[in-house]
């Protein structure tokens, strides 16, 4: 009877411990992911450029890279995060691929880089990205509760509890660039290092493969790989926002955009002729040429000799020339 009461008390204590741990883990998980995709407002009064996100180039440990398409997974996560910044009109990745196919531009981008320049109609910029040296490793510590410690009474039945909390460390570098695909010019670039240690249980991550050895890579499900990538990319976006906002406030017209005609100048009003201005009192007036003196009334002169003749005379009395 006494043994039964001790066992019941131990199990009750164990249940309380597990319940507290579960509550703590849930709170830690909520805190960990609460700010993912939450960004401050962008600058007001600016145009939102249309941006597409091709596949990233992800360099990861063998345990992380195995399985699905990690390059596409990273691009999907960045597409969502860029849209949540509220600073871009983000093109869905499937739509971006359709645009490239329709314009016979297959191969314009390789994972993480612009292979060749070319105008992509419907897209102003491409956001290219690389994730380097991505690794998720474990640091295993133990804690537990042993029923055999209760006077060794239940130890005869081999009843004991031993829990294990696995801490994981995620580390990588994230390189993102906003590129004009027509010219290949990079308008925004940023490289950041991501390093974070959390309890796997608190993150809600399940370890598929782990060893007792510390600093060993862990195996994650595809969903958990997406969660780890999202945390690293979200950190990179937050660190890039100052450069992005500076670019948006003074962004040039994209090379691939349609030309915008300048507005025609407004017709000007007719200009009235200027009123004549009176000369100043001390102004110098240019001299006008003198008019020829009119002949004295009643006098005539001989056209031949020039002598004066009386009015009405028809012939010059001096030379005899006819006077008109």
Cα-to-Cα separation, first versus last residue: 173 Å
| Oligomer state of the chains in this structure | single chain
Low-confidence stretches: 16-27, 142-164, 257-264
N-to-C series of helices and strands: HEEHHEHEEEEEHEHEE
Secondary-structure arrangement, i.e. CATH architecture of the domain at 50-133 and 171-196 and 223-248: 3-Layer(aba) Sandwich
**Helical content band:** 25-40%
Q: How does the helix and strand content classify structurally?
A: alpha/beta
Calculate the mean pLDDT score and round it: 76
Briefly note the CATH topology name of the domain at 50-133 and 171-196 and 223-248.
Rossmann fold
What is the count of helical runs?
6
Number of strands: 11
User: Major beta sheet, specifics?
Assistant: 7 strands, mixed
Give the DSSP E fraction (strand runs of 2 or more residues): 15-25%
CATH class of the domain at 50-133 and 171-196 and 223-248: Alpha Beta
Roughly how many Å is the radius of gyration?
47 Å
Task: Annotate the secondary structure layout.
Elements: H1 2-33, E1 50-52, E2 57-60, H2 62-65, H3 70-85, E3 89-90, H4 93-102, E4 109-110, E5 113-114, E6 125-145, E7 161-179, E8 186-199, H5 200-203, E9 216-217, H6 222-249, E10 300-301, E11 308-309
Parallel strand pairs: 1-3, 1-6, 2-6
Antiparallel strand pairs: 4-5, 6-7, 6-9, 7-8, 10-11
Task: Describe it.
The longest helix has 32 residues. 29% of the residues lie in helices and 23% in strands. The relative contact order is 0.14. The chain has a domain of 136 residues: Rossmann fold, CATH 3.40.50. The protein has 324 residues and is α/β, with parallel strands linked by helices. Strands 1, 2, 3, 6, 7, 8 and 9 form a 7-stranded mixed β-sheet that branches. Strands 4-5 form a two-stranded antiparallel sheet. Strands 10-11 form a two-stranded antiparallel sheet. About 13% of the residues have low confidence. The termini are far apart.
